[in-house]
């Protein structure tokens, strides 16, 4: 582990008061090329905090030291950081995937933020209310959302038109979804019409590996996977069976291919983006900027894109129900034993400023955390972000439980079994419960 002094906040030694007290705050961050401004914005924020401290007449000045972790992913990084805290060597602040926050809370390593957040509404008061759920444990809030994502059903309007759906029907799909009128079963019906009435081979495609996206299906059927009172994993057999039943029906109707989980990523994208060979693609907004536009040539112009393409949130399970999306915020957190909790909170408040967060959002295709970012010309110009921000109103999260990654692996295995015909929906629900009870700790079953 190397320690890199990224920035000395303050101008120069000559500009620093003679009696200034330097306060070094150490920030733990993964070496993540996909999000360099996560720590970078904290470094920039120190300049703003120091100017504020000077105006207040304080003799304190903040120095930010970034401690870099070479961990390949957030799970590995979280486990490494827990070990570091365990030997008393933890940093003052850290950046982490939100689902790990309660692991740090359970071990007493992270600062409870509720009172601080209320004290500084100028920094935290306008963050989207839904995003705060990502930083909560049963007894309070322990993290600040740093960014967000949106996951959805993309769809090919050309194929829907070819299948006989008129423009009025097609253009009403997003609004019908948000109102609860469009349902999951209707998505299967639309996809089946495309397969039956056009040359397209696939109705719906999803990721071919373990990950978050397909969990939207389970959530729309009421599977939240965590008990809000205890934070323990929660499995509800009937709700699991209903979600697996949707996949079972989609495969039986020839909509989802039985071999979806053995397909290659590039092949799936090509079928949807380039070959006009799939009606729907369940994935995330970042895929437009990272793959659809540069690799597969979809139009980057907003009007041209929406002429032939579109997206909807995850529809309700039943008519009149609530739609949903899924986001996976990365969060800022503060160590429980930091010597300067107030300064750390203020520092992360400045790091959450509209302009700095927008710098990160537009360069990494992540959603912002505040509605004011919609007024930033740069954010507005990145129209996929601006348009997808509305999904934060209905978004959900992975459980803040460190065992959920293992549970997700069990769910994915069961989903493979359903799609390949080895398991019925009922058998898949039983499989998940049996495996979870045998391999995981403190699993509640209803």
UniProtKB/TrEMBL annotation:
Cellular-component GO terms for this entry: periplasmic space
Pfam families: SBP_bac_1
Source organism superkingdom: Bacteria
Residues spanning the membrane: none
InterPro entries: Bact_solute-bd_prot1, SBP
Keywords: Periplasm, Signal
Compartment(s) where it occurs, according to its Swiss-Prot or TrEMBL record: Periplasm
Range of residues in the leader sequence: 1-20
Family per similarity comment: Belongs to the bacterial solute-binding protein 1 family.
PANTHER family found in the cross-reference section: ARABINOSE-BINDING PROTEIN-RELATED (PTHR43649), DIACETYLCHITOBIOSE BINDING PROTEIN DASA (PTHR43649:SF12)
Name of the protein this chain belongs to: Inositol-phosphate transport system substrate-binding protein
Organism (species): Bauldia litoralis
């Amino acid at each position: 582990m190397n320690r890199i002094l990224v920035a000395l906040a303050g101008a120069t030694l000559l500009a620093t008061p003679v009696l200034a007290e330097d306060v070094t705050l150490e920030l733990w961050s993964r070496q993540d090329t996909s999000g360099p401004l996560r720590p970078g914005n904290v470094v920039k924020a120190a300049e703003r905090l120091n100017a504020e401290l000077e105006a207040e007449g304080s003799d304190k000045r903040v120095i930010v030291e970034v401690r870099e972790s070479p961990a390949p992913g957030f799970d590995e990084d979280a486990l490494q950081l827990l070990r570091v805290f365990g030997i008393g060597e933890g940093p003052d602040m850290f950046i982490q995937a939100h689902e790990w926050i309660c692991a740090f809370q359970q071990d007493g390593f992270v600062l409870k933020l509720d009172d601080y957040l209320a004290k500084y509404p100028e920094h935290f008061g306008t963050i989207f209310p839904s995003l705060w759920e990502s930083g909560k444990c049963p007894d309070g809030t322990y993290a600040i959302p740093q960014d967000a994502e949106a996951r959805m059903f993309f769809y090919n309007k050309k194929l829907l038109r070819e299948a006989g759906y008129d423009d009025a029907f097609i253009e009403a799909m997003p609004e019908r979804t948000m109102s609860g009128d469009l349902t999951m079963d209707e998505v299967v019906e639309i996809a089946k019409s495309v397969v039956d009435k056009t040359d397209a081979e696939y109705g719906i495609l999803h990721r071919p590996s373990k990950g978050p996206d397909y969990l939207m299906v389970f959530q729309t059927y009421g599977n939240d996977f965590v008990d809000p009172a205890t934070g323990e994993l929660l499995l509800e057999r009937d709700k699991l069976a209903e979600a697996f039943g949707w996949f079972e029906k989609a495969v039986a109707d020839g909509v989802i291919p039985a071999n979806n989980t053995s397909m290659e990523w590039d092949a799936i994208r090509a079928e949807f983006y380039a070959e006009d060979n799939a009606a729907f693609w369940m994935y995330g907004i970042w895929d437009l900027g990272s793959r659809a536009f540069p690799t597969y040539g979809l139009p980057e112009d907003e009007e041209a894109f929406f002429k032939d393409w579109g997206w909807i949130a995850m529809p309700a399970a039943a008519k009149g129900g609530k739609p949903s999306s899924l986001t996976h915020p990365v969060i800022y957190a503060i160590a429980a034993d930091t010597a300067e909790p107030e300064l750390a909170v203020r520092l992360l408040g400045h790091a959450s400023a509209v302009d700095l967060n927008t710098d990160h959002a537009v360069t990494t295709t992540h959603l912002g955390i505040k509605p004011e970012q919609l007024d930033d010309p740069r954010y507005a110009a990145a129209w996929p972000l601006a348009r997808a921000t509305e999904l934060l109103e209905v978004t959900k999260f992975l459980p803040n439980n460190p065992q959920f990654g293992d549970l997700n692996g069990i769910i994915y295995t069961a989903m493979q079994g359903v799609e390949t015909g080895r398991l019925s929906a009922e058998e898949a629900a039983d499989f998940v419960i049996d495996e979870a009870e045998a391999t995981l700790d403190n699993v509640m079953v209803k």
